Amino acid sequence: MKLLAAALLLPFAAFAQTKTSDLFTLRVKIENRAENTRLYLAYQVDGKKILDSAIQKNGFFILSGYIESPLNASLIADHEGVGSNQVIKRSKKGVEVDAIRFYLHPGTINIKTDRRIQNAEFSGSVINSDNERLKAMLKPINDQQMSISSQLRSGNYLVKGNQKPQPISENDSLEARRMLRQLDSLSAAEKPVLRKFIEANPASYISLVSLWSYGGRSPDIPLMETLYNRLSTSIKNTDLGREYHKLLTDRKNLIAGTKAPDFVQKDTAGNSISLSSFKGKYLLLDFWASWCSPCRKESPQLVQIFNDFRDKNFTILGISLDGASDKGSWLKAIKDDGLAWAQVSDLKKWNNQAAKLYSIYAIPQNFLIDPNGVIVAKGLNPKDLRTKLEEILSK
């Protein structure tokens, strides 16, 4: 398994607690382990990366801690005893690393494997058992996706790092576009599988997680409400369940003509800035992050729009979904991209309080707000933003 560094940074984070009921215990048994094997558990709490480790004692690797609700985690096996830094370096270079991604949750999770963590079997964890069932249902589609993605990478069709794609010929470029269309079709093919699982398993936490994937960036609210309402009461009452209910409610309420919720966050110098302090100007509330490639791709166009309209009662407020450990990358991205407008963040990544207030679950995302603090439009790409500003500022 090739575990990229990004696999250590997953979207569903939780807040650390000290209640006994929130204790998780991960018990891992590796039948034929190498003598120097060490396990690393990587997850994220409140925007902060946590990397724990364990060696075998009395036949088991034991890792424990406190979390409030289920979250994504990675378990990585270092069979050679080279250390976490070397393992992560290898994964960044695309070298195969023995690892699995799974759900960490309060309670005891038992994992057993012959030697490789990739072949692990779960017991005592309904969430992970359900997740494995869904992964098996999606495997034929996911295998095709991986095959096509591998072909695209090997053909040098896709952007690698900051380099531009370098197709060998015009025909190769056409083939790459055909393969990208195939990937889109395969993503669409996942939808009925997800829906089937959701409808058949209303008491499964994985059904709730699947709602997010099924709904996508622009969910059909009436349909998603119907699917959400079919979930069991216990699942709807989880933190993630209440969060999804908020998303559905906000998608109906955070629309043009409604008041933009106020908030306060600190800028790059540590000064508190409130949304209400921009009253009297047209303001683009721009949610982004230094690690978000689509966000960074839009930066040059936003810079041009800012320069063209900054003297016409318009400005931008950037809200970064970077984490505490990414502050340096956030500051560097602001400088590198020439973002001359105000930037704020509480450095809690997806748990950013402003992002939660505006139900942000995918970026880039934005809201255009008028001088009275009323939402004018949302989700504008740079071209549509320019058109909208020309329309309202020419009156």
Notes on the structure:
It is built from eleven helices and 15 strands. It has helices at residues 84-92, 126-154, 170-200, 205-215, 221-229, 233-236, 239-253, 293-309, 327-337, 353-357, 382-393; strands at residues 23-30, 38-45, 48-55, 61-66, 71-78, 99-104, 107-113, 121-123, 264-266, 272-274, 282-288, 314-320, 342-344, 365-369, 375-378. It is globular and about 75 Å long. Residues 1-20 and 158-170 have low confidence and may be disordered.
Shape: globular
Whole-angstrom Rg:
23 Å
What percentage of amino acids are in beta strands? Answer: 15-25%
Major sheet description: 5 strands, mixed
Average pLDDT taken over every residue: 86
Helix and strand sequence: EEEEEHEEEHHHHHHEEEHEHEHEEH
**Ranges with pLDDT <50 over ≥5 residues?**
1-20, 158-170
Highlighted features:
alpha+beta, disordered N terminus, 395 residues, 4-stranded mixed sheet, 11 helices, 5-stranded mixed sheet
